[in-house]
Amino acid sequence: GGFSVGDFDTVFAKYAERTYEKALAYFMDETGDEVMAERLAEKTTMREIEQGYQAVETKLNTISNALGQTPFVTISFGLDTSRWGREVSKAVLRTRLEGLGEMKTTAVFPKLVLLHRKEISDGVNADIKQLGVECSRKRLYPDWLSLDEGYLKEVYERSGKAITPMGCRAFLSPFMNEGEEIYQGRGNVGAVTLNLP
Known about the structure:
By secondary structure, this protein is an alpha/beta fold. It has six helices and six strands, in the order E-H-H-E-H-E-H-H-E-H-E-E. Strands 1-2-3-4 form a four-stranded parallel beta sheet. Strands 5-6 form a two-stranded antiparallel sheet. Helix 1 (8-31) crosses helix 2 (34-62), helix 1 (8-31) packs across helix 3 and helix 2 (34-62) packs across helix 3 (83-98).
């Protein structure tokens, strides 16, 4: 089994915003120049995003369990249109494009799933879509998941939420909490292994 982090860009955008605000306050105190402080805070935040995701990918590909397996992790991203959500998506793709380690090998985990919704992916996030195409061309990842057809479209249009798969085929079933569909923060039990002695 494994686990998924859906809407990775949205989840980490709020932390990038906090990093930016903290850096902005620091550089305002240091320089007293608003334009310079904003530029330095943005540069600091971009570096934190890049290094943070590089660390995630490196750790997931260098740590193994008792059976010698790397953690089975899937992340989905690509729908966030906020400033920092977009930067998180780009950092994920650039890191995967760069390759892992000295040999620049293609990382297997986390499994990347780029969410595609026509009005977003062909609109404000068209640059992310293009970077995703380049990454798929060079590294075979990310996988693409369309929210424009079928059941995933129905769920997205009904709830405004995307269902992230675990691996290539297991999706969470709907779970209602006071009328709201919940997909984020749940364990994925779509694929279960039962080992009998």
